[in-house]
Specification:
5 helices, Arc Repressor Mutant, subunit A, three-stranded antiparallel beta sheet, alpha+beta, 164 residues, single chain, 3 domains, 8 strands
Length: 164
């Protein structure tokens, strides 16, 4: 089992303020949580699992680049135009892709041009900020996935409009 702490040594020079000469060194040790082992999954593969088209996958990737640290994507005409250009499609196609992403519970529309991204799939931030998020997927006897996500020890219901 790997140690979950990462340790680094910090070397500080001790300098005489009068002469500017180095008198010695002070060595200190710093320990902090390291990011745990993980499995990398490509958005294209997630799209295939969920049955998304290539264009919807491309739009998803573009939209995720617009996601803030609270898991929100704010859309306006300028952003939709940029997403369409990056995805090499029309603005109407972007809107259709957003609708599809909402149907798949990848996004939830909270207000006009305001979406939440499903934290079961995506999180954005520094490791120390998101390290307390844990998702567990188990399967019942019929093979259906039952998801449970925990944030700082509190269980969060599956990502649906009703759960918010």
């Amino acid at each position: 089992m790997k140690n979950n702490k990462k340790r680094t040594l910090k070397v500080t020079e001790i300098i005489d303020k009068n002469t500017g000469e180095i008198e010695g060194e002070k060595i200190s040790s710093i320990s902090y949580d390291r990011e745990p082992d993980f499995v990398k999954m490509y958005i294209e593969d997630l799209g295939k699992i969920l049955g998304l088209s290539g264009t919807t996958n491309s739009v998803l990737l573009s939209l995720l680049s617009k996601m803030n640290y609270d898991g929100e994507v704010l859309m306006n005409a300028l952003i939709k135009k940029a997403v369409a250009e990056r995805s090499k499609c029309k603005i109407d196609t972007v809107q259709h892709a957003i609708t599809t992403l909402c149907e798949q519970n990848i996004f939830i529309k909270k207000a006009n041009n305001y979406y939440l991204v499903n934290p079961h799939y995506f999180a954005r931030g520094k490791w120390e900020d998101i390290r307390q998020i844990r998702m567990t997927i188990s399967y019942d006897k019929n093979g259906r996935a039952v998801q449970k996500t925990e944030f700082d020890g509190q269980t969060v219901l599956p990502f649906t409009e009703e759960a918010l």
